[in-house]
Amino acid sequence: MIQPDAVYDVMIIGKGPAGISASLYTLRAGLSTIVISKGGESLGMAEKIGNYYGVPGDSTGADLLDAGVAQAKALGAVMVEDEIAGLDAGDVIELTGMKGIYRGRSLILGMGAPKKKFKAVNLDKFEGRGISYCGICDGFFYKGKKIGVVGNKDYMAHEAMDLLNISDNLTILTNGMEIELEETKPGDINGLKIYKDQIKGFFGDEFLQGVEFASGRKEHFDGIFIAYGSASAAELAKKAGIMTENGVVVVDESQRTNIAGIFAAGDCTGGFRQVAVAVGEGAVAAKSVIEHLRSIRTSAGGWT
Ligand SMILES: Cc1cc2nc3c(=O)[nH]c(=O)nc-3n(C[C@H](O)[C@H](O)[C@H](O)COP(=O)(O)OP(=O)(O)OC[C@H]3O[C@@H](n4cnc5c(N)ncnc54)[C@H](O)[C@@H]3O)c2cc1C
Question: How many domains does one find in the chain?
Answer without folding.
Answer: 2
